[in-house]
Amino acid sequence: MVELELQCFHDFMLAYVGSRWVAILKTTRLNLRISEARLAKLKRIAVQKEKTMTQMVEEWIDKLKEEKPS
């Protein structure tokens, strides 16, 4: 039997599994409207890069630069 201890924080959880802590990010669903052509392109590129579409979108979001408030 596997022992599991969870500690919840604002945007992630820590799980103690076996003999180590593992971070588990809380996730949510995003729905958006894009053209079929763009969706097909995202799927093709994700397959080529051996990534999920979620990983592709997350990486793109991580590259966005935030503007400093004026």
Describe what you observe in this structure.
With 70 residues, the protein is of the alpha+beta class. The protein has a 3-stranded antiparallel β-sheet, with no helix packed on it. The protein has helices spanning 36-48, 53-63; strands at residues 4-8, 12-17, 20-25. The relative contact order is 0.10.
Radius of gyration: 17 Å
Measured between the Cα atoms of the first and last residue, the distance is 55 Å
What fraction, in percent, of the residue positions are helical? 25-40%
Overall shape = extended
Q: Count of helical segments?
A: 2
Q: What proportion strand? A: 15-25%
Order of helices and strands: EEEHH
Structural class, please?
A: alpha+beta
Which consecutive residue ranges, at least 5 long each, have pLDDT under 50? none
Strands, total number: 3
User: What average pLDDT do the residues reach?
Assistant: 82
Largest sheet: 3 strands, antiparallel
Strand arrangement, largest sheet? 1-2-3
